């Protein structure tokens, strides 16, 4: 469903499992940090609201959104996280660079999900304007970071339910 019809921060609180025993990695792009920092804040606050312990939330930065795949892969390989949230923001410019960065990051995250055992949550905002990004990073459309945190909790719960 298009974000225009759904606030990214709205969800049924009671449908979210308790995250007290879950460990999260968050890889966040430094590029457009005015946006990605707000996404990070939303994700961390939402994880804690659902019981995640501060010591079980590992945050690492990468230079840009294209590097999110590498960062997520390294976090999976060298930490013991149950899920990784990848947060980035790419705003369309005058060149095709936007298309290449978005495509590369999207395909990379999809590949990690298809081939791995640790869910990687897609928190890449791709917009035409900075205003659209701001609307999705705590603005009038909510915060994509909140949505990603809920998704991470639910995907860990999903994976654990199959391992029993």
UniProtKB/TrEMBL annotation:
Family of this protein: Belongs to the DMRL synthase family.
Annotated catalysed reactions: (2S)-2-hydroxy-3-oxobutyl phosphate + 5-amino-6-(D-ribitylamino)uracil = 6,7-dimethyl-8-(1-D-ribityl)lumazine + phosphate + 2 H2O + H(+)
Active site: 97
Gene Ontology biological-process annotations: riboflavin biosynthetic process
GO cellular component labels: cytosol; riboflavin synthase complex
InterPro entries: LS (IPR034964), LS/RS (IPR002180), LS/RS_sf (IPR036467)
Binding site for 5-amino-6-(D-ribitylamino)uracil: 31, 65-67, 89-91, 122
Gene: ribH
Pathway in which this enzyme or protein is active: Cofactor biosynthesis; riboflavin biosynthesis; riboflavin from 2-hydroxy-3-oxobutyl phosphate and 5-amino-6-(D-ribitylamino)uracil: step 1/2
Name assigned to this protein: 6,7-dimethyl-8-ribityllumazine synthase
Gene3D superfamilies hit by this protein: Lumazine/riboflavin synthase
Keywords (A to Z) from UniProt: Riboflavin biosynthesis, Transferase
Residues annotated as binding (2S)-2-hydroxy-3-oxobutyl phosphate: 94-95, 136
Transferase as UniProt keyword: yes
Transferase keyword on record: yes
EC number(s) stated in the UniProt entry for this protein: 2.5.1.78
Function: Catalyzes the formation of 6,7-dimethyl-8-ribityllumazine by condensation of 5-amino-6-(D-ribitylamino)uracil with 3,4-dihydroxy-2-butanone 4-phosphate. This is the penultimate step in the biosynthesis of riboflavin.
HAMAP family: Lumazine_synth
A GO molecular-function descriptor: 6,7-dimethyl-8-ribityllumazine synthase activity
